[in-house]
Records
---
Amino acid sequence: MSALIVTSHPLQRAGAWAVAVLAKRADPGRVSESDLDAVASVLAADLVAAATASKDSTRYDWWKVLFALYPNSKATHSKRPSDPNVLRPDIESLFVPDTPGTATVRPCTFCATSTTVVWAKSNLPLFDTSKALNALPPGVPGWPVCRGCRIAMWALPYGSWVTAGSATVLSSDEADTEREFARRNVLRARRVMQAGFTGLPAGARPELVVLVALRDATDGLCATTLFSFKNDNQEPWLRVTRMRRAVPAFLATVDGNALLRRGWQLLRRALNCDDAQGRTTTSGAGEAARLLFEAEDGRSRPLLGQLHRLLADADGPWSLRDREALVRLAFTYAEEVFGMETDLEPVATLIADWIAQGSSPRGRLAEYRKAALSDYQLGALLVQAYTRLQLNGHETPLAGPELWKPLIQRQPRAWEQRMLLFAQVSVILQQRGVRVSGKTADSEQEREIKALLDRPAFAEDHGDEYDGYYDYEMEQS
Ligand SMILES: [Zn+2]
């Protein structure tokens, strides 16, 4: 029987994968008792080093991570011993094997393996808050936790994306993605321990780690969920975001197509923020990755909405090729991720004709931009455009009301269709050379885009550099 069982509990699961990575095993099911011994001594050594680090050292940053997850544990308590030799036995005792004999045997809280050890909530990550619902049944002295799960629960910060106050874990139906996410986070954890958080690139995000992990692990269907936890003893929170199953296939399509790659790079570039010194404060790559996740509470910024904002910017700096790339990206996402099949060409042509024939195309485009996402206003504008073009004796047949219907009715994905319609209108206008913008793309921007296009679409700008630098050899510790 395996010494470690991976369960569906998101924290235990992330910790179990971290144990597998630390033990250099392909998956948690291959972790042996002696692997647990080795991982336990790694954890103990790191915990003692963090707990006895001076407050101004970079080592102390790892203590902040531990404090956020286990605020009242022996390693983080304000009255902990400052002498490593005094603290070490306390820490090591957390991970010792069960001692069968007189003690009562109970099933482990997480994996149901028999265990004699019962833990207080102070040893369990994120359990020790007044808000969490973790009351024990009457007569139970604490949480029974088997050795594999005890070690997993303390390996959690290695396998999750941590900040000084939060942890993000991943659950995926693809084991390779979970392993890759854990592997990258273990490397990142090593880096935090050695150089502190200031040693990490600014603005990176867990969503980007998922994208890179997905690219390495799968190009098929794969549902991925991120759970972000914060525990500051006052306002603990949990945020759940999901990536749709078809997103990996969409990413593979983008990776394999030059126009779509260009669109993705433009999106990244538009979302990047630098400070006055030119240092990145918000990583465009991270923000773009975030758009592929939808929050469970509905409060997230979807990819199509962001592309719409970029395309709707009247003075946006887009060359025709840029615009075509962004529009293609929006349509590909709608087709592959939402399964939308749309032929918006006739209706888009109707609106483009109406805009182009006005005395001020820029003014008409502004009118359309205002109405574009509203079912009612778009309906009114289509009636106006259709009537005006008919009165003007339009030569070619016009798209009639039966073609607008899906766009102006309240039905699923009508909002997305209206955004795609706008995208298509904007590209038709630019293809025809209709002057609607005050500006044109400059050559400096063109050079920047060319430089970006030399890189693969989803390579984490900073992530790959971890590989090798801190390749951690467990045997050495
Ligand atoms: Zn267990």
---
Amino acid sequence: MEERAAAPDAPLHFPCGVAPALGVALEIAPGILWQRLPLPSGQTVNAWALRDGDGWTVVDCGMSNEPALEVWRRLLSPAGPLEGRPVRRVIGTHLHADHVGMAGWLCAEFDGELWMTRSEYLQASLLQARSGGLMSASELSFYARAGWDAAALGALQPMGRHMAPLPTRYRRIRDGECVRIGDDDWQVLVGSGHSTEHACLYCPARGLLLSGDQVLPSISSNVSVWPSEPGANPMQDWLASLAMLRRVVPDDVLVLPAHHDPFRGLHGRLAQLERKRHRALDRLRDALEQADRRAVDCFETLFGRKEFASVFVQQLATGEAVAYLHYLVDRGEAVVHEDVHGIAWYRDAAQALPGSAER
Ligand SMILES: [Zn+2]
């Protein structure tokens, strides 16, 4: 079952198209195992196990549900790829359930530590605590303001499912800090936009970047305004974070992302991700020149479709549409006004009358 490829000191390699099966690990670089955990969508999330003394440090760990638990049990069994050694530490790149859903279980199982940035830990704890509860009035009004109808609003649920209760204490990691894992120093690089304080880990000596959801090879991460901070401008944060990564991390690293395969060509991928956002912003500018729009009216312009597979995906699309709109409002290119129903309408600033309300 085990696919342990590289011998110690073997050069880094990129095993094109050879993703490890569930419950199996692939040694992508000496002492660094690539594992995948199943998600309810049928997709997977990567968990990276880094050899750390007599045990492991695991970076991201999948959602908490039966299939993922079953995979972890296989990985951790004495005959499994982690050799039955303990997980001493879980590093969560950010708050989302596919990244830290199993952190509580893993830490409890091995008396391990959870390491995260502060705002990611606090937000993840809050989300988990609210799981199964009701949407608040202010959360519902956020989506109503974006143009959702009553039926869609009635289907909304708080996030935080698939997350085991997090440990009630954690170790804070900060931007620029060096984290020693095994014999290697990893620099914490904090980005923002997909979440508020997302940690990437960069090892200059080995030319490796654990990029979490900050840089993905074949999909672009969701960048959303959320009801908890309705005035945020995460698109600006996102673009600034991509620029930061280009400044700090050289192009020739091997990128170990949270979804899909490891890849090389970081700077080219960063440029693609930036281009995609700027093209969408250009389309949005054109659309606002033609007519005033609510966030929900921008779906086709931004995403090429009006309907989504689930309320959750529609939630992501709405948050991202608002993120694009706020970016233009903050730059003075668009203005927003609320109608008598409390719905936000965005307009090209050049066509706006004096006195339009701020967001
Ligand atoms: Zn995420």
